[in-house]
Amino acid sequence: MSSGLEEELTTLLDGGAVPLPDKCDVAPESPQPLRLRHNVCYIVMGILLNDQNEVLMMQEAKAECRGRWYLPAGRLERGESLVEGLCREVAEETGLLCQARTLLLVEERGASWVRFVFLAQETGGVLKSSTSADKESLQASWWDTVSPLPLRCRDILPLIQRALAYLRLPSHPSILPQLCPSPFLVLRPLLVCVVAGEFQILQSSADPARLPTIVCTARGGGILDPLLYLLRDASMSCGILGVQHQGGDDADGVCFNIMGVLHDCEPPVVRIGGLRWAAVENEALKDRLEQAMKNNTLLPLHS
User: Fold this and answer.
1) Per-residue pLDDT tens for 160-181?
2) Cβ contacts of residue 131 below 8 Å, gap of 6+?
3) Tell me, what DSSP letter sits at residue 287?
4) Residue 164: its H or E element
5) 3-class secondary-structure state, position 20
6) What is the pTM of this model?
7) Distance (Å, rounded) from C-alpha 178 to C-alpha 298?
8) Inter-CA distances, 279 with 113, 193, 198, 200, 302, Å
């Protein structure tokens, strides 16, 4: 394994960003760049909890769900980073300022719709009252999660429970999006095959060596489908190691750095050429990979 690939692995395990190559290893012919409000929608959602473990809620102003309550959330706007969009939505809908603490999970319906759920903390502002109602919301309030409250949708209940559980015992280190541009939705898989204590990594055959990159299209299926297709008859556990996004001209895409682990099997056959398995010989890097697998450092991706 080359020193360049080892450096890339170390950066990703440290939560950093790695720029995308000019050409991805797996991509459709003439892929269309993603554009917000055109062929992709990103939702940013914030879960804020106070000292009493009450959750910040907003009352909907939209006609189709007017008067119902929901977590502050909305569509990312062009040119925004994911964290900027989160802070704007929380401020518009609740009156409070916030700081992102970590992503809790990512939900997707293919490459054209992705929701980024953040755990955040209040840093100031004034809680929105009914006298300040506008098109964004009617008001905001802290909810104890027990008192009756007419919800817009119950899909937020497990998200709130996940946030409460994270505060009691973090399930992964703080993972926040790193500013790094991408025109497409890209997977960068860090696939680790472990056999008898030895580690092998799937790498691109490009020169210099690097991890593979895969462009996901908006045509149906889950984001991970192209990755699962790569490995014939392989079963693995995987999650998000990091998220890269910048926003702006030709940069509405996202790169998901995905870590997948295959235990007690020979490196599986790769369906697509240009990729190969390489042994990890650096003992320090092997220790880092082992710790990442043991400590459950990955962010869930829900389809």
Assistant:
1) 999 999 999 998 899 999 999 9
2) none
3) H
4) helix 156-168
5) coil
6) 0.94
7) 16
8) 36, 9, 8, 4, 31
